[in-house]
């Protein structure tokens, strides 16, 4: 029996490819982007920036890689081993090179000639900010506020075009006291709602949980929901399928403060929170709800995006 959701994902993906907005790279969840797609995406990114710039955050831009030790320190490997990715490279001598060439000529697996480089692929844009802030010492009374934007990787190949393996996140990260964290999250819940409404997209904000791995992960997910530590702004990108999380609001409590020994102004462990926008997902939502030709979109939406 055909899965209606899978058929809907495949149909939407094929439409995006047909209109030349996405470019197939032969791997599920891995796409090139056309100039038209990028113009819309950068309009989305600029609109997010316009909302957050009033807070005068510190801007940090990181490459799509972090140190493997940083990934370990974050706890990501313990909680999400199924999503993590690392970078390996050839580091052998002549004998190893010959073995590699032999494997290639036979069409065999050659990955055994690769060795870890100490670089991991970034799973979330905010991960680069915490060690930087921690290295500065005790936080000032105002705490820290950082604007980050980078490519991320999560290993979850899918025919759903909104579930890409490599994608971009625009995040604002708040580091400080529990009261500062609460104010930050309430502010961004309202800001994100208003922004997505201005884009003419249907949406809802609901309590959510991260995709923790295994039996212990189910306990963590239940706890996260019970304490309302994560909210998601959901948009129905494919009508026949479940709604897609396009913005997430995360209260980490002191998890990352302890992981990186970030010291609050009062000498205690700092709390952290972030709001993350999936710019590809919001771009796909716009294409689904307004059509594949941005020039035909409502004037108000084009104005917000600068198109």
What would you say this structure looks like, in words?
The protein is an alpha+beta fold. It has helices spanning 4-18, 35-52, 68-74, 76-79, 94-106, 129-134, 178-198, 214-226, 255-259, 279-290, 299-305; strands spanning 22-27, 30-33, 58-60, 65-67, 86-90, 114-121, 144-153, 166-176, 204-207, 230-235, 244-253, 271-278. The protein has two domains: 4-85 and 123-305, Bira Bifunctional Protein, Domain 2 (BirA Bifunctional Protein, domain 2, 2-Layer Sandwich); 90-120, no CATH class. It is built from eleven helices and twelve strands. It has a seven-stranded mixed sheet. A three-stranded antiparallel sheet has the order 4-6-5. The chain has a two-stranded antiparallel ribbon with strand order 1-2. Helix 2 (35-52) crosses helix 10 (279-290). It is globular and about 60 Å long. InterPro entries: aa-tRNA-synth_II, aa-tRNA-synth_II/BPL/LPL. Its EC number is 6.2.1.n2. It comes from Reyranella aquatilis. Residues 152-294 form the Aminoacyl-transfer RNA synthetases class-II family profile domain.
